[in-house]
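Summary for the steering committee. One of the milestones for this cycle was to obtain a three-dimensional model of the protein with iron/sulfur cluster bound, which we needed before selecting residues for the alanine scan. The sequence and ligand used are listed below.
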Amino acid sequence: MSREKFISIVSTAVPLPMENVDTDQIIPARFLKATSREGFGDNLFRDWRYDSNNQPKPDFVLNNPKYSGEILVGGKNFGSGSSREHAAWAIYDHGFKVVVSSFFADIFKNNALNNGLLPIQIGEDELEQIFDTINRDNRAQFEVNLAAQELRILSTGKAISFDINPYKKECMLNGYDDIDYLLNLKLEIEAFEVSHR
Amino acid sequence: MSKTLFDKIWDSHVVKHIANGPDVLYIDKHLVHEVTSPQAFAGLEKRGIKVSRPQNTIATADHNVPTIDQHLPIKDQLSKFQVDKLTEYCEKFGVTLYGLNHPYQGIVHVIGPQLGHTQPGMTIVCGDSHTSTHGAFGAIAFGIGTSEVEMVLATQCIMQPKPKRMKISVDGDLTSGVTAKDVVLYIISKVSTSGGTGYFIEFTGSAIRSLSMEGRMTVCNMSIEMGARGGMIAPDEKTFAYLKGKEFAPQGDDFNKAVENWRQLHTEPDALFDKEYNFDAADIEPMITYGTNPGMGVKITGRIPSIGEVKDSERNSLEQSLTYMGFQAEDELIGKSVDYVFVGSCTNGRIEDLREVARAVKGKRKADNITAWIVPGSKQVEEQANKEGITKILEEAGFKLRQPGCSACLAMNEDKIPAGKYAVSTSNRNFEGRQGPGARTMLASPLTAAAVAISGKIVDPRDVVGL
Ligand code: SF4
C-alpha cells in the first residue's frame, strides 16, 4: 500500500518557538480514543489552542490568521514523550507536510517518517534564522527539496542542507511503505527463525 | 571487537542489514494494548493478511479502562469502543488477550515481567514508550508507533537504525529513604530529557545491582524520559530467581539451560560505549520534580533553580513551566501544599511499591486535604495486596485501593486531576495536562508520596516515616 509521494514543497511556515514540545501537548491522551488514523488534526495542540470552554485562544499561533502553511517550525527536542503515532497523524492531518527543529525525539521522528511527514533537523543557529525570517515577514516562503536534501529561505536564497537516512529518503520520494518491504522478506525471516531457535 | 550486552542481543536479532538503511530486526515478544493497536489491526485487514506469529503476541486492556466497577460495562462510549475493538481483533487474529476482569489483566509493562513473558536476551516491543521497563531483565525493549506495530504484527520484524551505546554507572551505597525512583529522577535531572536521544542505555554499578528486580524496572522504565530508545541491566542471580517458576518462563530443565545462556548476557570488560556517565550513590537524595518535564527534578530539600542558573536556551521553558505550576523561581519545595496523591503506573504500581506505602502509612491517617488514589499495576498485584493485608492497612489509614489500569498516569479514563490542583505522583511524566487539563504534577517515589499523603504537604519522607 503506497503512500503519497513527497517531492518538494514551497510554503510559508508556522513558528512554534518552544523547546521540549511533547506528545501530550501535540495531542492530549484524552483524544486518543479513535480507532482510525484520521481526524486527529482537530485536536492538534488542543490545550494550547482552546480554553476550557472550547473557545480558541487568540494568542496561540494556530489561531492567528497571520500564520499558515505546510511547514511547522518547532524548538529543540520536538516530539519528546510518548510513542503515540497520533502525534504525527495529528500534525499531518492538520495539513503540515514538514516539521523543522534543531532536535527531534527518536520515536517521533520514526513515526513522522512512517507517515509521510518530513522531520528536518537543522542547526540551532539555522533554526534561529528561520524564526527570524518568519518574525520579519510572516508570509516568507520556504522551499523544501527532499531529493536535494535542502531547505531554502527564498527571500535570501540561503540553502540549509539536512540529513536523512538514505533508505527513508527513497521510501518518502517513492511513497514506499516498510510493510511491503518486510512482507517481501518472508523467506529470509523464516530462515532466520530456524537458526534463531 | 568486544561486545556490549546491547550489541550481543541486537546483532543476534538482525535478519538483514540494509546498506545505508535500518536493520531488519526480529522481535521475540510483541505486547499490544487497546490504544495504539486498532489502526494496526485494521491495516492487516485492509491488506488481507494474518498476524504472522500470534503465539509471540500478548494483548491487554490498560490505558483506557475504568479503575472502579470494572465488572460493569465501560460507561465512556469511546473507551468501550476501543476495548471492544481490541477484543474483536484479538479473537479474529488469534492473539491471547488478558482483557478486563481476566486474572492476568494489568498495565502491559507490569504483567509482562510478572507472568514470565519478559526474559533475558529477548527483543520486546510494544506501542508504548515505557516498554523500556522490560530492559531490567537484560532484554532489548523499546516503544514503537502504530505503523511499526503493524509491521511486527505482519512480519514479526521491524526496521530500525541501530542506536548508539551509552553506559550509566551508579556506584556506592544508597542512603536510607532513597529508592530506585529517586535514582532515576536524579539521573534524568543530570542527563536532561534529551541527553539520551539516539542511545540505548546500559545501567551498571553497585547501586544499580543492589536494586531489586522491581527497582530495576523503575529505573529502566524512565530511560525514555532521557530521550533514550531504551535502557537495560545485565541479568544476574536476582533476575534468574525472579523468573524461576513464573508461568510463561521456561520450566524445569529448560529453565536451567536458559539460565546457562542468560549468564553470557553481559558486556565484555573491554567493550566500548559511545558515551558514559558515572554517578555516586551517596550524592542521591529523595527527589521531586517542580516543572513540566521529568528532567526538572531536585532533591526534595532543595529549591527551584533561579532563572539565571539555567542555560539561556532553557530560560523560556523554565519560566513557562513555573507559570503553569504556579511556582516561583528559588521557591523551597518543602511545605508546599498538595491536593492529590497518585500511587500507581508502570513505574511504581508493583507490589513492592504498595508494600512500601503500606509500611509508611501503617497506623497513621492521611491528611484531610489529600485525595489519594492507589492503583495497583495488575490484577495479580491487587490480589497479592489483598493477601498480604496491604489493602486493609491502607483502608485503615483512609486510602482506598482502586482497580488495575494506567489511570491518572495519562488520564485517559475518568481519573483526572482537576485543573490547578497539585498532585504528587509516582508515575513518569509531569507534562502539562498529562494528568488532566491544567493538572500540576510533581513526580516522586512511593515513599515520598506516602509521606506527603500523611502530611498534606511536601515533606522529606525521612522526617515522617520510620525508615
Ligand atoms: S502506566 Fe502510564 S506510562 Fe505506563 S503504560 Fe500506562 S500510560 Fe503508559
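Key point for the committee: The two ends of chain A are 32 Å apart (CA to CA).
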